[in-house]
Design brief:
- The protein folds into two domains: 69 residues, Orthogonal Bundle (Arc Repressor Mutant, subunit A), CATH 1.10.10.10; 57 residues, Ferric-uptake regulator, C-terminal dimerisarion domain (Dna Ligase, domain 1, 2-Layer Sandwich), CATH 3.30.1490.190.
- Helices cover 40% and strands 18% of the residues.
- The protein contains five helices and six strands.
- It has a three-stranded antiparallel sheet. It has a three-stranded mixed sheet with strand order 5-4-6, with no helix packed on it.
- A hairpin with a 5-residue loop joins strand 4 and strand 5.
- It is globular, with a radius of gyration of 18 Å.
Length: 137
């Protein structure tokens, strides 16, 4: 008989729907965008459920969160390895990037100020190739 009463939260059907949708796109999506997309696919899911699902997925380390220019949270399924993002400020496309020079710089700056174990999150905004070429035409 299992006497462990500390049940682990599970990946519910609604959370799986949210995760599946995030895996289909390259850009960060807001809760409202996810909700509209899921409703558009015929899913009967409430906005509050989407918010709760996103919060659970973020706390579980399954998705990344950024703040948009207007301060709204946006979400994306990302790899588990430490990385940064290049984000198109027009279409929202996001690309995961890594850079040893940035990692070294963060360690150096921390050491210069007596800090240890530095952590950082970097988001670089610009225009993706598609949006850049659209500007040129």
């Amino acid at each position: 008989m299992n006497t462990d009463h500390t049940a682990q939260p599970r990946l519910t059907r609604q959370r799986q729907l949210i995760l599946d949708r995030l895996e289909q796109v390259d850009e960060f999506l807001t809760a409202q965008q996810l909700h509209a997309a899921l409703r558009g696919e015929g899913e009967a899911i409430g906005l509050a459920t989407v918010y709760r699902g996103l919060q659970w997925l973020e706390e579980a380390g399954i998705i990344d969160t950024i703040r948009t220019a207007d301060g709204e949270a946006a979400y994306r399924r990302c790899s588990v390895a430490h990385h940064h993002h290049l984000i198109c400020h027009r279409c929202g496309k996001a690309v995961e990037v890594s850079g040893e020079a940035l990692e070294e710089w963060s360690r150096q700056v921390a050491a210069e100020h007596g800090f240890t174990g530095p952590e950082h999150f970097v988001e670089i905004y610009g225009l993706c190739p598609a949006c850049s070429s659209a500007d040129r035409s």
